[in-house]
Design brief:
Number of strands: 12
CATH topology: Beta-lactamase
Number of domains: 1
Distance between the termini: 16 Å
Strand content: 15-25%
Helix content: 25-40%
Radius of gyration: 19 Å
Shape: globular
CATH superfamily: DD-peptidase/beta-lactamase superfamily
CATH architecture: 3-Layer(aba) Sandwich
Oligomer: single chain
Order of helices and strands: HEEEEEHHHHHHEHHEEEEEEH
Largest sheet: 8 strands, antiparallel
Strand order of the largest sheet: 2-1-12-11-10-9-8-7
CATH class: Alpha Beta
């Protein structure tokens, strides 16, 4: 482990890494260290319990929330989006199902299409970011994008699909989606520091997101002021570890449903991965991943469920996490 610490410190120094790195072996943290600043203007350092935005890392929590509602009999994998949306978002095909949305196989048009050619720091939100505080307020942002292909035909990563899932969950329960994630995932997993925070009123112990390795420009004008099903939750390295422990212990959804969620639905050669329901999967072994990438945010957590080894990297810059997480993949064989 001493060699790991030295190599991680070296990469962190070379890349001006700002964030937290944690490696877990079984139930114990084998390595945990913070680097850089959470708030540059005031010189506030990151600590191992700093809360970071994890962008699309939330998709795993969204999927778990939806599956927990399926277990409770409120939804089914075959439930169509149309049966819940009514006349909203009319360009979504009538036969798009919850399962297809979870697996990124719905074919719906995406309000943040990752196949489009734009840089992560570009201003791409289709509506003013301060108008996106509740899931219902995203309906206007989602509207006007036609189907890309027939439902179920192929894999196409879709941010909008996970906002639709959040909307479905909220409408069938009558409970705000942010509260559903807390009730169905964070509470049973023991994740007290994980929540959808508003970027215009961040509390203490939260890292601001920066667009570059230096400078003071943050991401507050790039992202919704409060996230929903496709991104925007904040968490800590310890809470991410708690999520993996609770997931595979069957404390969030049953072990039978966990197996269903990590069953490959698609091969994704462009990413050298596969995809299940809400979780990225290694292309050839049982390793499971969550990943997030956005303006001022980079995050990856990799869990080897056979060896029970996890590594998690959270960064408050757009690309800061990648050099260290690549290094840990190589060192740990994940």
């Amino acid at each position: 482990m001493e060699g790991w610490a030295d190599s991680i410190d070296r990469i962190a120094a070379e890349t001006q890494f700002s964030g937290v790195v944690r490696v877990d072996a079984g139930d114990d943290a084998a390595f945990e260290r913070a680097y850089g600043l959470a708030e540059r203007a005031w010189g506030i350092p990151n600590t191992v319990d700093t809360r970071f935005a994890i962008a699309s890392g939330v998709k795993g929590l969204t999927a778990l929330t939806v599956v927990s509602l399926i277990e409770a009999g409120r939804l089914d994998l075959t439930t169509t989006a149309r049966s819940v949306l009514g006349r909203d978002l009319p360009l979504i095909a009538d036969d798009v199902t919850v399962e297809q949305l979870l697996a990124h196989r719905s074919g719906i048009g995406d309000y943040l299409d990752e196949d489009a050619e734009y840089e992560i720091e570009d201003y791409v939100m289709p509506v003013p970011v301060h108008e996106l505080r509740t899931t219902e307020e995203y309906v206007r942002a989602l509207d006007g994008y036609p189907q890309k292909f027939a439902p179920g035909e192929q894999f196409s990563y879709c941010n909008g699909g996970y906002v639709v899932l959040a909307l479905i969950a909220e409408r069938v329960t009558g409970t705000p989606f942010h509260e559903l994630v807390e009730q169905h995932v964070c509470a049973p997993a023991g994740m007290p520091d994980t929540a959808f925070l508003q970027s215009d009123e961040l509390p203490g112990r939260v890292a601001a997101g920066y667009l570059a390795t230096d400078g003071l420009t943050t991401n507050v004008l790039h992202l919704p002021v409060r996230g929903t099903g496709d991104g925007g939750i904040y968490s800590t390295a310890a809470d991410v570890h708690a999520l993996w422990r609770a997931l595979f212990a069957g404390r969030i959804v049953s072990e039978q449903w966990v197996a269903e969620m990590v069953r490959p639905r698609s091969d994704v050669p462009s990413e050298s991965k596969r995809y299940g329901l809400g979780f990225w999967l290694h292309e050839s072994n049982d390793t499971v991943m969550l990943e997030g990438f956005d303006a001022g945010v980079s995050f990856k957590t990799v869990h080897d469920r056979v060896r029970r080894i996890t590594h998690t990297v959270l960064a408050n810059t757009s690309r800061g996490a990648w050099p260290i997480t690549r290094h840990l993949d190589e060192q740990l064989g994940t």
